[in-house]
Design brief:
The protein is 21% helix and 48% strand. It is an alpha+beta fold and 130 residues long. It has an 8-stranded antiparallel barrel.
Amino acid sequence: MKKYFIAIVILLVFFSSCKPGLSPERLYGRWNYTRIEKPASPSDSVTRFDIAEQKPAIVFNKDNTLQIYWGGKLLSHGKFTINSLDIKYKEDLGDGKTRDFPFSVTELTDKKIIFETLGEDGSKVTAVRE
């Protein structure tokens, strides 16, 4: 009886810790930035005033394209794929050139996403779904 109880507790802990996985369908839509932090250099973090003025956003489209806007203008575009909790973004630089730009998603709900760009100049972005 004790073995069954322990097995049930382990299964409950396992299933309660499972989060819905990252999928393109969970990302589709426009996400407006509410916070941009630079963990390696907090003084370079973007102020709330700049965010309100520039209205940065990231848009995930159903054809797995991604667009990033800043100041009402298209800043970056390309294709994205999902790998576990990472978004693999292949930015289109024009003239057939591309750049791989990975994002790591640390939180995702129906209304909020937090992702980090990787590398020395990385940033942590909080955005809400429009």
